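Notes from hallway chat w/ T.B., transcribed later so I don't forget. T.B. wanted the structure written out for a chain they're using in a teaching module, and asked if we could keep both sequence and structure tokens in one place. Agreed to drop them here.
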Amino acid sequence: MNTPIVILALPKHDDNFTSTPYQLALKFAETRSVLYVSHPYSWIDFLRNPRDAKLRKRFMATRSGGNIEMSEHPNLQILILPLVLSINWLPPGILYDWLCEFNHRIVINAINNATRRLGLTEYNFINSHDYFFAHVRKKLTSVRRYVYQCIDPIIKAYSARHGRKLEAEAARYADLVISTSPSLNERMLEYNPNSFLVPNAANFDLCNRAMDPETGTIPSIDRLEGLKFGYVGNIERRINYDLLIEIFGSVPEWQLVMIGPKDISYIPDEFLSLPNLTLLPPVSHEQVPEVLKSVDIAIIPFLCDEVSAQIYPLKMFEYLASGKPVITTNFNPEVIRSLGATVHIASDKIQFVAQVNEISMTEDANHQTERIEVARANDWSQRSGMILDLI
């Protein structure tokens, strides 16, 4: 029997970009029923922007105790959670603990009601990095196995205030823990000996559409003149802005295109003033092949620090699946080393220029095929199978 799966995930299903847990949910749904439970919004979120469609949907769910809606896959349903109290700003102590349990009860009741309505008499429960709700498992009914999935380091002060303690609890009481990078797995082993590494992957079939002559491109990128370098993802703390300023400030004929949600507090003015920089808003996951088809070289310009050493980005295999050459910093040596010659490594401007020159002189169909085959071997179908085997 293919046991149903319930996933409580920090990334929301209707975010502007896809995520590890949602891609896994789509794959799991090919063989079983899946309920995806997005991290809830707070009352403060709603009161700040009551006309926002996503927040109004959560407000309606508050009135009913949670609403179930369909997704693009017939076996995957979405649970829209009620609004909860905003409490993360509180210091550790009795008040925070009491209100935290109050929020937990809202989520627990919504999940239990939804699983009853869906007739899920037994299911495997995955908490995918939603450490804010570390104790939900304790009072869920009908759970067969409890899995905690660690997909990112907890870095920002807002998240770390309570998150590190809660994540330790979420991992400690799990039947098994799954991490997306070697360094994250080492940390999880401190909490739970049943910890395993299952790296991120890519939606190969989707991103490989960049190779299809029928796939369109992005007009605003097409209009740019010169060699085009593309980045798709969060534009925030992890980006090495100094490196990009040094490279693209000195080679004005190159075009830097960055697409994704921006955290302006991390982006220096000097970077924003680059004349050959194009910042575009987030695109849907379905449009990623169009973006990749529109650029010449894909880049991952992450800082090489303790945080980035724990990252295993989805975009690496999405880039490779498109067939495009990839230049990356050596942000996670263990991960980068495993990819061999299919990616180009550059830690400074001189190395970056050298890698571009190498690509221009050596790029051929064989290199493109090698990249595509590496991506094909790291598809979500393979990763979802690994997780199901572990469960």
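Follow-up for T.B.: The chain has two domains: 5-198, 204-376. Might be a good example for the class.
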